[in-house]
Amino acid sequence: MKIRQAEVIVTSPDRNFVTLKITTEDGLTGLGDATLNGRELAVVSYLRDHVVPLLIGRDASRIEDTWQFLYRSAYWRRGPVTMASIAAVDVALWDIKAKAAGMPLYQLLGGASRTGLLAYGHASGRTNEEIFDSIRAHQEQGYKAIRVQAAVPGLKSIYGIASNATFEANKGVRYDHEPAQRGALPNEEDWDTHSYLRHIPTVFEAVRNEFGPELPLLHDAHHRMTPIQAAKLAKSLEPYDLFWLEDCTPAENQEALRLVRQHSVTPLAIGEIFNTIWDYQLLIREQLIDYVRSAVTHTGGITHLKKVLEYAAQYQIKSGMHGPTDISPVGMAAAMHLGLAIHNFGIQEYMKHGARTDEVFEQSFTWNDGMLHPGDQPGIGVELNVDEAGKYPYVQAYLPYNRLADGTVHDW
Ligand code: GCO
Ligand code: MG
């Protein structure tokens, strides 16, 4: 089963997506997601200029060997661009292998360990009333677990909160469709940790009072706090029994979470910007986290993320795979197959893509009463409509960034 062709397809239906399509000599095709929000074209070049020439003529069935070859032969290993590129090849080869076997991918990964995947959505609001409405709107869509992000009094704009216009247009059902600014330079937002630390516990107190003790609630701090600030937040949120507190400290500093752990039993999740098992080494071995946030798309594909999750399982740490709209339907499908098969699945992040995206990527996964299932088509169950994809050329887009009141650049 030799690889005949490998194409890198860039399309921007609602936002930019980078997809690798591999075709074998006997006509089987496989897709892999290589979308790296705001830095998409770096991955396109890595794939087109450096990886595609290595793929032509290789045996498509040798997935582990191809993974090791791409990782080790580059010499310059790790990093988001390299690992997203390897991930795209890896998922496309798993898609082909599963199609060749006539099975949905999760069967090749060991078969289903559960009937469906619990997913969480993103509620947000500028006031507690808006947050309540947004939570209710998610519940009406079936969501059984909900991430809550709140505007902070005194700050103009903040990660995870819809702009006024988007909020009105969508009645709080989703925040800005994706945070990257299309066709513009990075948006500057403001930040003040003390105001945030004062405000957030009051929001969770109000949400618990309104919705009761059962609803699983999550919160994303997006890497903006120092270890002691994060410990303070984790401790102050304890009475509201969060499912998790995500990215409470800068991702580069694994030791930071020791301090948070010493002060709180709020479950911790981290890893959406990690890309190898080495980023988790200390976190897993010392049991400093409860959930692994990596996406298949950014962590070397099914082959590598499965190893990370199996390592995590030995320490009772579960999956909580990244699933915002900047993971394409191809990346989401891969995550669902992996999540269905592994034993230590925790939860899946799931934001619905826009209508144009759903026309470009024909998908077979299902969303039923708050649970995802990848479907039973052979492969990963996603096909790219090339004609539709061709209608939407790449649009330059950047993620926002933060400045403190005195002008200092801060984590966003
Ligand atoms: C999440 C993430 C995303 C990221 C985005 C950046 O928890 O879903 O924090 O919203 O900000 O993926 O591209
Ligand atoms: Mg996050």
From TrEMBL:
Example of a GO biological process term: carbohydrate catabolic process
Q: Which InterPro entries match?
A: D-mannonate_dehydratase-like (IPR034589), DgoD-like (IPR034593), Enolase-like_C_sf (IPR036849), Enolase-like_N (IPR029017), Enolase_C-like (IPR029065), Mandelate_racemase_C (IPR013342), Mandelate_racemase_N_dom (IPR013341)
Q: Which Gene3D superfamilies match?
A: Enolase-like C-terminal domain, Enolase-like, N-terminal domain
Give the highest taxon in the source lineage.
Bacteria
Could you tell me which residue ranges the Mandelate racemase/muconate lactonizing enzyme C-terminal domain spans? Answer: 128-267
- Which one of the record's GO molecular function terms can you name? magnesium ion binding
Instruction: Please state what the protein is called.
Output: D-mannonate dehydratase
- What organism is recorded for this protein? Herbiconiux ginsengi
